[in-house]
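Progress narrative, work stream C.
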Amino acid sequence: MWKKIDGRLIHTKDVSRVKFRTNISESILNELNSLANKHNTYVNYLLENGLTAVLSQGVITYNKKLRPKDRVQYKTTYDKELLEKVKQFAKDHNLFINDVIEYSVQYINTTDGNIKKVDFRSRVE
């Protein structure tokens, strides 16, 4: 992100975002990559949209026996507050964070206009 200070643009780190590493189904990740390309966004912005929807419902129906077997390590950044809420939500429902992330994919809404675009990270504040 860029900040305008004294008429000059200064590149700064977005402190509202944190790095997070988890394991996600490779097939889901491939599906998200194509969806992100189609909508000019990043996978983590899509995931944030789905996670927000799941948290707003407050309920999750997840069958632990149907966990995917093709999980791969996935590292990205998330909104700090959202990630804390997801961690607490997973703990309250006796799930792993990656289970909640994978579950949230079905709730991604690309038509509501709330998904951040690729250029969001280069915004000027």
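Work stream C, second folded protein:
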Amino acid sequence: MPFEPRSIADHIDCLARLTSAPRSFVIQVKELFSRKGIPLETDGEPYVAALEEAFRREESIRTSAHRARRNIASLHENFNKIGRSYVRQLQHKRSAQSGARGGSDGERDRRQQRGWAGSHIAVPGDHRSIVTRQQREDLPMVPGPKEKQ
């Protein structure tokens, strides 16, 4: 024997089961009718289209929110992977730089005790020069009184 909803309450309950709507949403819909002074035992036929639309939208919003939460979790995981990779690369770079500088661990420890952590980079050349704008010797030419203007 098929169930044919007749009242507004029957339609709401049927749509809630079909869309797996949360109980809180079902209560909100029922309260909406009660606040408007429409009894839930009233024939639901005039309200079926609006109820179906409301439950369809709620289901769509719920699905989108679930997908967004999954995507955020995936992004969080990807950022953690990027961070770990960055730390590994930085450690690799630091170990390569300390190996290129040479010296033993004891020598490095003595430098750090003296206050020099080894972050100084020597660049050859004279660093006392001043950089200024380029000067030009070309003067603009202005036509004379007898030349074409």
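The chain has four helices and no strands. No further action is required on this item.
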